[in-house]
């Protein structure tokens, strides 16, 4: 199912393209109606005017407090200068496609309830056990976020996005808030469901969307969706194989998909960062964190976090593990067997915070959440496959791989190359420079906590949506659409 080659993808239009609610749910706050907004702005202006007339001296103090609010409101409807790439219309899909899945969180997987996992608007439970490891002022910014929560996080952000429009006529892009990952999650581990069960949500959504008048505007080229799992979970070719067929359904053809792992050959797949546990509430949270990781004392050269039990000798991860154990003093191993690393342990964060480098082999698929856990902790990632990051997250990571990461070809490791040897060859200053690059990119790979995003700082969500809007502009070039 996973392609075996590791060739760089075509970043733009591929040569061979066919290779391939607004809702009443409490947390997804709908926008105020437009007329209400107009009245509110007028009202605010009258009040300001009255205050200014009556209290000349205090005007300077009062106006700056109110101005940002007025600006934020006008950005919803007017103000094209705020949204030079255009605006997004969010489809009001029936609840069946999103919030109903969340409300039935106890049946999302066969082993137990996922209600805690997706609580707090998808961020999960507060990571109280990190107190003492992270700066005190940031204890409220960390959660045990599930790696598959992005469709919920994106939906909440999209409903409050500053470049959202309620007028479909004026939209540049159309967002489809289907929770495709949650919808298929419960069918992945038991085979007593039919292929139709697995494709039900996606199939029904496509029928619904194709019936909308705005589909025809561009044959779906201006439509996009977040799918919270890796692309391979939606690419079932035979009925009794793994996953859903969602991406292979003919009606999906022109829809851009934001995924935590993309198929590097598919133009319509866009890789976005996995959600991590860090959800800053303000730019100052980000800056506090950046300073914290910059000034850490790092006592080990590198670390490896992964499930260590049951790794066979010839498995690549097994080789890394052996090298790590054999570099005692220089390498730290964190055993993430079961769900130890996703649930209630600070061990993994501590080992990233204490190491200069972290090893990021591929696992069952090319990417891992650990890449982002590592970088957020200011540790420099070491990659063995290009598709682990370089051809996945181009909108989010630096263009020069060597500026923030180390690449060691997997074949060299198989032939016995010493990882410790490679990493020790970097001078202190080189390491400092690479780490600084990683730290500089932290805002671009986190998902902010406020549904409105961070004021004056772009996070992963902002970059993803701007990327989609810009792509739609590119597509307008003559002969682009195929
Ligand atoms: C499939 O099996 C699981 C447990 O293995 C069970 O909970 C579920 O009800 C079964 N579903 C169907 C449709 O039979
Ligand atoms: C996708 O776009 C192409 C080119 O605009 C169009 O011919 C095709 O019908 C579209 N596919 C779907 C499923 O709408
Ligand atoms: C550990 O490393 C040493 C020196 O590189 C090597 O001789 C030895 O065989 C290694 N041991 C294992 C278990 O890999
Ligand atoms: C995760 O943590 C919660 C709360 O501490 C606990 O109820 C749950 O059993 C834990 N799950 C696992 C798999 O350890
Ligand atoms: C992978 O990326 C590295 C670093 O950018 C590059 O040197 C190498 O040629 C790439 N390998 C393949 C197979 O594309």
TrEMBL record:
Give the molecular function GO annotations. Answer: galactosyltransferase activity
Regions of biased composition (Pro residues) lie at 1-14
This chain belongs to which protein, by name?
Exostosin GT47 domain-containing protein
Location in the cell:
Golgi apparatus membrane
Biological process (GO) annotations?
A: xyloglucan biosynthetic process
Outline the segment boundaries, as ranges, of region: Disordered: 1-21
User: What is the membrane topology here?
Assistant: Single-pass type II membrane protein
- Tell me if Nuclease is a UniProt keyword of this record: no
In terms of PANTHER family, this protein maps to: EXOSTOSIN HEPARAN SULFATE GLYCOSYLTRANSFERASE -RELATED (PTHR11062), XYLOGLUCAN GALACTOSYLTRANSFERASE XLT2 (PTHR11062:SF214)
Which keywords are on file for this protein? Glycosyltransferase, Golgi apparatus, Membrane, Signal-anchor, Transferase, Transmembrane, Transmembrane helix
Family assignment?
Belongs to the glycosyltransferase 47 family.
- Domain spans labelled Exostosin GT47: 83-420
Among the entry's GO cellular component annotations, what is one? Golgi membrane
Which InterPro entries does the UniProt record give? Exostosin (IPR004263), Exostosin_GT47 (IPR040911)
What lineage is on file? Eukaryota, Viridiplantae, Streptophyta, Embryophyta, Tracheophyta
Q: Which residues cross the membrane?
A: 31-52
Classify the source by domain of life: Eukaryota
Q: What is its main location?
A: Golgi
Decide whether keyword Transmembrane helix is in the record: yes
């Amino acid at each position: 199912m996973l392609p075996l080659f590791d060739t760089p993808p075509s970043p733009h239009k591929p040569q061979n393209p066919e290779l391939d609610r607004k809702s009443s749910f409490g947390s997804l706050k709908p926008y105020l109606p437009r007329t209400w907004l107009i009245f509110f702005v007028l009202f605010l202006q009258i009040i300001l005017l009255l205050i200014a007339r009556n209290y000349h001296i205090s005007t300077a103090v009062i106006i700056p407090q109110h101005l940002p609010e007025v600006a934020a409101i006008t950005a919803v409807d007017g103000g094209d200068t705020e949204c030079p790439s255009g605006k997004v219309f969010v489809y009001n899909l029936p609840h069946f496609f999103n919030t109903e899945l969340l409300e039935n969180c106890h049946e999302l997987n066969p082993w137990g309830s996922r209600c805690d996992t997706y609580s707090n608007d998808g961020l999960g439970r507060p990571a109280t056990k990190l107190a003492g490891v992270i700066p005190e002022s940031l204890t409220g910014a960390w959660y045990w976020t599930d790696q598959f929560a992005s469709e919920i996080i994106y939906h909440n952000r999209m409903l409050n996005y500053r470049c959202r429009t309620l007028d479909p006529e004026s939209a540049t892009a159309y967002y489809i808030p289907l929770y495709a990952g949650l919808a298929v999650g419960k069918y992945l581990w038991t085979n007593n469901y039919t292929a139709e069960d697995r494709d039900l949500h996606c199939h029904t959504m496509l029928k619904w969307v194709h019936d909308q008048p705005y589909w025809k505007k561009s044959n779906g080229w201006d439509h996009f969706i977040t799918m919270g799992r890796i692309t391979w979970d939606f690419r079932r070719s035979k009925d009794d194989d793994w996953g859903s067929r969602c991406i292979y359904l003919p009606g999906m053809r022109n829809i851009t998909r934001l995924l935590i792992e993309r198929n590097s050959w598919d133009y319509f797949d866009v890789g976005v960062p996995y959600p991590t546990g860090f959800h800053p509430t303000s730019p100052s949270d980000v800056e506090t964190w950046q300073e914290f990781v910059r000034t850490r004392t790092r006592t080990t050269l590198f670390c490896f976090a992964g499930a260590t039990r049951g790794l066979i000798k010839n498995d690549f991860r097994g080789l890394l593990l052996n090298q790590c154990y054999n570099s005692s003093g220089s390498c730290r191993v964190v055993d993430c067997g079961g769900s130890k690393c996703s649930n209630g342990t600070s061990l993994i964060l501590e080992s990233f915070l204490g190491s200069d480098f972290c090893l990021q082999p591929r696992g069952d698929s090319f990417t891992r959440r650990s890449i982002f856990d590592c970088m957020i902790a200011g540790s420099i990632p070491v990659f063995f496959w290009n598709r682990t990051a370089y051809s996945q997250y181009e909108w989010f990571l630096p263009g020069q791989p060597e500026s923030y990461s180390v690449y060691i070809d997997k074949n060299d490791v198989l032939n016995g190359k010493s990882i410790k040897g490679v990493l020790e060859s970097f001078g202190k200053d080189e390491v400092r420079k690479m780490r600084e690059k990683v730290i500089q990119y932290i805002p671009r790979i986190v998902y902010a906590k406020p549904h409105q995003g961070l004021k004056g700082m772009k996070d992963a969500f902002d970059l993803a949506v701007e990327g989609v809007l810009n792509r739609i502009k590119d597509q307008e070039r003559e002969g682009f659409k195929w």
